[in-house]
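Full entry
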Amino acid sequence: MKKNVKWILMAAMGVPLAAAAQSNVTTYGTLDAGITSISNQGGSRNTTLANGMQIPNLFGFQGSEELGGGMKTVFKLETQFSLGDGQFIGGSGFTRQTYVGLASPVGTFTMGYQYDFMFESLSAARLAGSLPYVSLYNLQQGPFQGLGTPFGGLDFNRVAGAFRVPSSVKFVTKDLNGFNAGVLYGMGEKAGSFGTNSTISAGVNYANGPWGVNAAYTYAKDPSINEGKDGIRNWGVGGRYTTSSMQVDAIYTNTQNTFTNARANVYQVGADFKITPTTILRGDYQLMKGNALVTNNKAHQFGVTLDYWFSKRTDIYANLVYQRTSGNGATNAWIAGLPGASDGRSQTALRIGMRHFF
């Protein structure tokens, strides 16, 4: 099937079929669905069929073409959709990642719609093998809408991967003795003002045996903040320690609105344990804390995930997440990924779901 897709795409784009021998195209996807029970919504409990929580529902194409001399072309076209109604999320077309570039013995240069390094370094690289057990519910939202970030404060520190950078150029070095680094620049494309609406990001990763250390920085100027001259600045550091049966990880992030000076800090620790080769238990705790310009709001959040793999491609899981808030302003709890805030200062999410990778 993958070969057929490759030939069809090449023919549709008018690519000479002789080039097929030098290139490859693969299709891939992820499917996630489950039932979530939510406390304190509309004065009672709410039960929903929610999808894309443990992992986004994705479908995409990726490929490369060998050019010789250690060089190759790389590309990715990826979209996100809802299993509940079959509709695309974020509009029609490829809405998740789209890029093309060149890979060389030095590193990889790409152009398109891409993740910044708050996600790539502080989630993907830092969590590594633990990433499949960290759901959207385990990430950041809470009573911090005063930061001025999009999506009601969802993923305000950009670690969950809710944001990609349009019109961006990116370079990531090859691994050298466990070390690699990357930079990204998103062009604001406003005539007469190069920096307006722009994004700059950088990340550094180091792994040596069981240890891993990561750092990242992103400054995304926003058209809604001081006409694109200011925006949201994020930075963070984290790391992990891994053995054959467990992994312990930690992260600190700082989020600041450079126009209002509203800030929030996140301190998070987590660990997962391999109960059997196919059964994984993960727990995490985080403290989210805002400054006076976010009315000194705080949120404590605890999460537990139990995951069982039927095969390398199919698993079932259960999540339990609890958030408790305090502060001087509107302190309604809001666990990331839930459809709305709690009616009070606490919120609980209980979920049973399954995933399939193809």
